[in-house]
Description:
Layout: E1 2-5, H1 7-27, H2 29-41, H3 58-71, H4 85-94, E2 101-102, E3 112-113, H5 115-123, H6 129-143, H7 148-155, H8 158-167, E4 184-187, H9 191-208, H10 220-229, E5 236-241, E6 248-256, E7 259-267, H11 273-282
Parallel strand pairs: 1-4
Antiparallel strand pairs: 2-3, 5-6, 6-7
Amino acid sequence: MDYIVDDRVFLLGLDELYRGAVRPHEETELLAAAAEVAKILRVGPASVPVEGYYTESEALSRYFRLMRALQAEPAKRAPAVTGLQSFQRLRAVTSSAIYGRPNDLQALLPTTRDPLGEALARSIPDWTVPRLVQVAQAVALEWDDYSLSGLAARAGEPVVLAALRESVVLEVGLSIFSREVPASYLWKVSPALTDAGRRFVTAFNELFLESLPEPGPEDAGRYWDASERAEILGRCGCLGRDPGGSRYYHWAVRHEDGKLAVHAFWDGRLWTTDQYRAALHRGEGLPV
């Protein structure tokens, strides 16, 4: 039996491998670094909804809220912590190309602008899924972007883009199953996406001293298996807001007509993955 690793399978596999590899760093070394910097600056955790997979443990939630608080601090506070190895590490992570382009240079720790964020900026007020996917794909190629969501933008598939964007919700600013028969894995990822994916993996492995597999035929099986473990239904991320801050624009992954699709919606509150999945489970209460 042949298992085809195409653009979609590769990206969902890469996303699952990334989440599994980065989480231990966020729960330990990066949490400790954020706590040290916050203590020196006398900054407490931000009182904000915890988004994405950061709800999965107390350590992840604390890291999310500490980072949100530090991201809100102005750059003028940097001299108090510039010499700290902890601060330098946080800056290296938040400025890494695996998350996009640094977005706010006036902040202590920058958020980033990825192709989808740039598409949001370029498409005002036409925030529709087809338009944003089209512009995000063009931006990813224009910028030669190989961030995680940039790779998804290159593929031009909205469900994959929505799912991977939720994985980097903290860094990006608002704007193994059994087989009874031998299996082979066929790498059908486009050459350009494979090349850009290799750059992401190389940068991530160097940044975190990890060993995500290099995209290509040799590790097609690992990406297939990882994509099978990926739970993308219900992933929800806030992409932007109106000028008054009273309404928020979201993308979420849900079923429509028996297929996964992107649910784009505005709402007066910021929706998280946990809240959206709970509403899906109840079968009611989803925003229009």
